[in-house]
């Protein structure tokens, strides 16, 4: 797993089909490499991004068992490394659950689901606002006929899902919906608000990290327009199923289309999305590989 993680991080950095590695290095040398302040600022964004993710997981797990900050860091980064190869990081559920005794593993998986749902809710809410701003302020060429066909398809799928639901479709990723609702109700309002707050702070950090990179690469856009494009990009990228390893590719493709509305150079956008992936997935996954290599199943005494 660790060897595979290192290989894929290396491969996506060196042999990127969307961006020649030498062009990537030239961009970094021109805009970033000569400024230690810029480098430390970018790393600071990454550290605080994962700091709030670690605190969020620590808070979630406290409902089942109190763990230290270091335990939360170990589980968060270790599960990231383990989930790089799985669609939508679904492997993260099993990776985190295995740190706990069998009787608590389903609760841990459910808590992880709630944490991810919280982060997704923030992404979708702010992204919808960003998309609304784009539709109001930009003239988008939309094929109405294709959207009608898509609308019909979505309507058919919804009818099928609702039909199945009436016949007993009561599960989400193996969890009964009524049990999820009951579990969520048992959590205190303070816990819910804390989780949402951490998710919101994380979103502010990595979205402004992207904005900071745009400034570094001399993209001249006003703040409101820039943040609307970024939030819309994350909205669209988040609803496309993908491997964590290909997260940069999905976001890169979406970002190229989004920022083409304001005529931003594609090379700059691809460079930024790859750099964001390295900072927020690549480096943490490398650190997480240490925890994977040193992983030990919980002993009976610790359970």
TrEMBL record:
Residues that span the membrane, as ranges: 38-55, 110-138, 150-169
Keywords on record: Membrane, Transmembrane, Transmembrane helix
Superkingdom field: Bacteria
Protein name according to UniProt: Uncharacterized protein
UniProt organism field: Aureibaculum marinum
């Amino acid at each position: 797993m660790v060897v595979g993680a290192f290989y894929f991080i290396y491969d996506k950095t060196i042999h990127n089909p969307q961006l020649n590695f030498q062009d990537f290095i030239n961009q970094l040398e021109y805009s970033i490499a000569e400024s230690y302040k810029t480098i430390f600022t970018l790393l600071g964004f990454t550290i605080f991004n994962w700091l709030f993710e670690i605190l969020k997981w620590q808070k979630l797990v406290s409902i089942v068992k109190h763990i230290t900050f270091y335990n939360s860091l170990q589980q968060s980064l270790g599960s990231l490394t383990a989930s790089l190869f799985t669609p939508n990081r679904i492997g993260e559920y099993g990776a985190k659950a295995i740190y706990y005794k069998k009787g608590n593993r389903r609760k841990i998986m459910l808590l992880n689901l709630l944490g991810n749902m919280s982060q997704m809710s923030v992404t979708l809410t702010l992204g919808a606002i960003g998309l609304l701003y784009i539709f109001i302020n930009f003239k988008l060429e939309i094929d109405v006929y294709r959207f009608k066909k898509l609308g019909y398809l979505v309507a058919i799928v919804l009818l099928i899902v609702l039909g199945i639901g009436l016949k007993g479709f009561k599960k989400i990723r193996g969890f009964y919906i009524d049990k999820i609702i009951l579990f969520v109700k048992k959590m205190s309002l303070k816990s819910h608000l804390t989780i949402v707050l951490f998710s919101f702070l994380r979103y502010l950090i990595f979205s402004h990290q992207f904005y900071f990179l745009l400034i570094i690469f001399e993209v001249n856009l006003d703040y409101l327009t820039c943040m609307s494009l970024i939030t819309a990009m994350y909205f669209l990228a988040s609803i496309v199923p993908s491997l964590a390893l290909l997260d940069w590719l999905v976001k890169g493709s979406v970002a190229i289309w989004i920022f083409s509305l304001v005529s931003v150079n594609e090379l700059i956008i691809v460079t930024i999305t790859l750099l964001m992936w390295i900072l927020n997935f690549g480096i943490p996954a490398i650190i997480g590989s240490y925890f994977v290599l040193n992983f030990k199943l919980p002993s009976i005494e610790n359970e």
